[in-house]
Automatic annotation (TrEMBL):
Domain annotation Amidase: ranges: 37-467
Enzyme Commission (EC) number: 3.5.1.4
Organism: Kribbella sindirgiensis
Database matches in Pfam families: Amidase
Protein name from the UniProt record: Amidase
Length: 494
């Protein structure tokens, strides 16, 4: 089997192009044509992305698509608020006109998928321009246990624009880094456990993981049907709300939740255990965030606790069993001649170990390949335990304290990139929502030693309107108090 890897780009960590520190691109407006905006973003990608490596596959038809949408606008045919807006799409979401590789060389030489994923069809129907595909942690960071977020054999290594020698997080690394670097205001990420909210927090952008099932799962390279979902990654909460409106089919206009900042009728829980204490600087920033939420009128119910989110073994059992089944179902949709099973992918990696396995192994793939299906008593028991740990933990805390939502620190500040030993994550707040299949929103809350950190807001199933309302109020209060979020300087962190 032949394959094509992306050309390796030489990156100088000290290079400072003239416009790097000029701030993010200007926002979309009715006076800026789609063609002009696409040209501006393509220029920004050419200038900056050699440092960040966020966009793995540019769309050569983006300008043609933009011109068509400009013509529609000139003729009075406006499809919606995002008409003509460029959007970057994570490279594990099917696009019929561009490769979908999940970062793996095993899919790099395969034809593009026969159809767009339903969520991409919704983007195009709303008038969005697919600007390109973004790099990710290969196979959404579920191949080997010592992986480094942001690395894939196909796309190379994505770096954090705020600190080029620090992680962009994962697995939606390219989407988060691209928005932070001003390569697009709107991007699509996917999450199983932290893969949207982690890179959102580390790159200082907004990331929203919706309730599982709210956005169609079809056409997304899977890990777990019980936990996988796509969601928005944007500069602002209102932009995330607008993109979620499109991704969910337009039945709910989530931007309506961004109309005000008065939280006087809202009760917010603060579960200190087990979600605090792993980063002193992050805790201090989050305490400041609580003050701002209180100033917006919210009632804070502090010093609560969530149960520990179950053992790692139960979580791994669920993901392993579902990966084997779901991956085979997905691969069956791709062109004949390519891999069809997890065993095929494992064998490919062995044959191309010098590229695929150069930094970490595939023991998670091998574990999943050895599972015995979704009727296995081991899987059934683990899935039930995971559901109870996630849903009961969140719902019971909300009900017992009459809460609308929970807030907590998001992720520890970006850790140093270490391709040899893998990620060094001090802590996070994504597991309860992941196990439950419930929504989770990360919004920038401040900086620790120059590195962005975030606040996560969570709730019960389909509580996205509430989460967006709280995040918008907090975002507004933080900007009033502290000014705009700092823009990246594309330098090494020292």
């Amino acid at each position: 089997m032949s394959f094509t890897a992306r050309p390796t780009r030489s990156v100088s960590l000290t290079r400072q192009p003239d416009a790097l520190n000029s701030g993010r691109i200007r926002q979309v407006s009715s006076t800026l044509s789609s063609v002009a905006l696409v040209e501006e973003l393509q220029g920004r990608i050419r200038e900056v992305d050699a440092l960040v490596n966020a966009v793995c596959t540019p769309n050569p038809a983006a300008l043609t698509d933009a011109a068509r949408l400009d013509t529609e606008r000139d003729e009075g045919q406006v499809r919606g608020p995002l008409h003509g807006v460029p959007v970057l799409v994570k490279d594990n979401v099917d696009t019929a006109d561009l490769p979908t590789t999940a970062g793996s060389l095993a899919l790099a030489d395969q034809p593009p998928p026969p159809d767009d994923a339903p969520l991409v069809r919704r983007l195009r129907a709303a008038g969005c321009v697919v600007l390109g595909k973004t790099n990710l942690s290969e196979w959404a960071n579920f191949r080997g246990s010592a992986s480094s977020s942001g690395w894939s054999a196909y796309g190379g290594l994505t770096r954090n624009p705020y600190a080029l020698n620090r992680s962009a997080g994962g697995s939606s690394s390219g989407s988060g880094a691209a928005v932070a670097a001003g390569l697009a205001d709107y991007a699509i990420g996917t999450e199983t456990n932290g893969s949207i909210v982690c890179p959102a927090a580390l790159n200082g952008v907004v990331g929203l993981k919706p309730t599982v099932g709210l956005v169609p799962q079809q056409g997304i390279v899977p890990i777990s049907h019980s936990q996988d979902t796509a969601g928005p990654m944007t500069r602002t909460v209102k932009q995330a709300a607008a993109l979620l409106t499109v991704l969910t089919g337009g039945q709910t206009d989530y931007t309506e939740a961004c109309r005000g900042t008065d939280l006087s009728n809202v009760r917010i829980g603060v579960p200190r255990g087990p979600l605090w204490g792993y980063s002193t600087g992050l805790d201090q920033v989050t305490e400041r965030a609580l003050e701002l939420l209180s100033q917006c009128g919210a009632t804070l119910v502090d010093h609560l606790s969530l149960p520990t989110p179950g053992g790692d073994e139960d979580q791994l059992q669920v993901l392993s069993h579902e990966l084997k089944v779901d991956m085979a179902a997905y691969l069956a949709t791709r062109a004949p001649g390519g891999p069809r099973t997890l065993d095929d992918l494992i064998e490919f990696n062995k044959k191309h170990a010098d590229q695929e396995l150069q930094w970490f192994g595939q023991e998670l793939f091998e574990r999943a390949a050895a599972t015995e299906g979704l009727s296995s008593p081991v899987y059934v028991a683990a899935r039930l335990t995971a559901l109870r740990a996630g849903r009961d933990g969140i719902d019971n805390l909300l009900r017992d304290n009459q809460l609308d939502a929970l807030v907590s620190p998001a992720y520890s500040p970006a850790w140093a990139i270490d391709l040899v030993n893998g990620d060094h994550v001090l802590g996070s707040s994504s597991s309860h929502a992941a196990l439950a299949g419930y929504p989770l929103l990360s919004v920038p809350s401040g900086v620790v030693s120059g590195l962005p950190v975030g606040l996560t807001i969570s709730g019960t199933a389909r509580s996205e309107v509430t989460l967006i309302r709280l995040a918008h109020a907090f975002e507004t209060a933080r900007i009033v108090a502290d000014g705009p979020f700092p823009t990246p300087e594309f330098r090494q962190w020292v």
